[in-house]
Amino acid sequence: MQTALTIAFYVTLFAVFAILAMGLINLVRRDAGQASRSNQLMRMRVAVQAVAILLLVLIGVVAGKFSLPW
Length: 70
Hints:
Layout (H helix, E strand, L loop, with lengths): L1 H27 L5 H30 L7
Helix pairs in contact: 1-2
């Protein structure tokens, strides 16, 4: 279980990096949809970062490093 969560965490980190890179590339584009795309990419990045944080917490719980209060 811990190995699967760790792999999922690294995949999620790569996704965050890829979305961030796409956002930076989008900043240099100057077309009509640039602002809309930038906003969409930012929302996507925040959502994927939330998943990464959740996976990190789950890895800590499964590894026994800390316990949840409930």
